[in-house]
Amino acid sequence: MDPEVPAVTVADLGILRAVDIDDQGRAIAKVTPTYSGCPAVLAIELAIEAALRQAGFDPVIERILAPAWTTDWITEEGREKLRAYGIAPPVAGSSSKRALFGEITVACPRCAATDTSKLSEFGSTACKAQYRCNACHEPFDYFKCI
Amino acid sequence: MPAAWVAALIGLADDHLILGHRLSEWCGHAPMLEEDLAMPNIALDLIGQARGLYTYAGDLEGAGRDEDALAFGRLERAYRNLLICELPNGDFAHTMLRQFYFASFMQLFWQETESSTDVTLEAIAAKAVKEAQYHRRHCAEWVIRLGDGTDESARRMAEAVTLLAPYTGEFFIADPEAGGAVEAGVLPDTKALQPAWQADIEQVFAAAKLVLPENVYAQKGGRSGLHTEAMGHLLAQLQFMQRSFPDMTW
């Protein structure tokens, strides 16, 4: 589970790219961090290591920088889990720079209304912005696209 | 990438660490809750970018210095950050204008670095460019809101323009340590970024009813380790724990 969004797994988010078993029987977990300053990276790597150890593997964590992580890697299942948790998932296919800075429609994760407004570009964690639904008046987090 | 360019990477990392530290000083003091979240969030991005650059510089150098040794273990003269990054925060207008200048510059810098011949820098740039764009947009909105706001906000923003004017020229002075790296297509030629930067600033200033001063003397020295009076005070705070308890972790 992601420590800051405990509704989705790191595989759902596309942070855990692959786990390979090498010829010495070690489990090589390939991890791509989200934001440069994401404070959860270390916690995520430790959790992956602990999970692999618990499953009886000898784990090695490998940090992969290229290609850079993008919100497009969040799986369909991950997007549904985010929505169910009350976080609007990133607008699909929107990691292109034009979409990032153009006008986007973010649907309310509670009532699905598309009449929403942005409250702040920065939210409770580096990866989220704050929105409010103009239909049900609930504030909600939006997972920013990068 | 040759180890000769390590100093250029460290200078770039220092820009981000020092400015990130400055921004973090706003935590708990911002004029509104949203900005209390925004500024430390931007600081986190900058410090994260610094970590990537320090780690890579330390690996290339091969002398066993890791990101912590580079961030906390050097004396003032060894820091190579641009002077604008270490200036005291001033008021909110001053901080936002400085951040807008820096983010606009870094957006252009990272865009060029995305086609670096060095794969690690290319990867760092691919992520950082999106973050810099996000910061630039946020700060540009504040420059416009305050510059074209009340009499007091406009006065403060105009003051910030005057105070920061001598410190923007250093963005475009070629780093003597980066010479070979620019020729090899590893790092961008910062001098070539000036027209695009100026056009970006002027476009936002037109909406903010601000004027960019011309022919201002450019303060320099950061890239050769000659800092302002503010730097020692900043480092005293930044390094205190590591100086008192070397190699501490928690």
TrEMBL record, chain A:
Pfam families from the UniProt entry: FeS_assembly_P, Zn_ribbon_PaaD
Domain PaaD zinc beta ribbon, first and last residues per copy: 96-144
Gene3D superfamilies found in the cross-reference section: Fe-S cluster assembly (FSCA)
All residue ranges annotated as the MIP18 family-like domain in the record: 1-54
Domain of life: Bacteria
Name under which the protein is recorded: Phenylacetate-CoA oxygenase, subunit PaaD
InterPro entries reported for this sequence: Fe-S_Maturation_MIP18, FSCA_dom_sf, MIP18-like, PaaD-like, Zn_ribbon_PaaD
From TrEMBL, chain B:
InterPro entries membership: Aromatic_CoA_ox/epox, Ferritin-like, Ferritin-like_SF, PaaA_PaaC, PaaC
GO cellular component: cytosol
Biological process annotations from GO: phenylacetate catabolic process
Family matches, as Pfam families: PaaA_PaaC (PF05138)
Protein name: Phenylacetate-CoA oxygenase, subunit PaaC
Native source organism of the sequence: Planktomarina temperata RCA23
Gene that encodes the chain: paaC
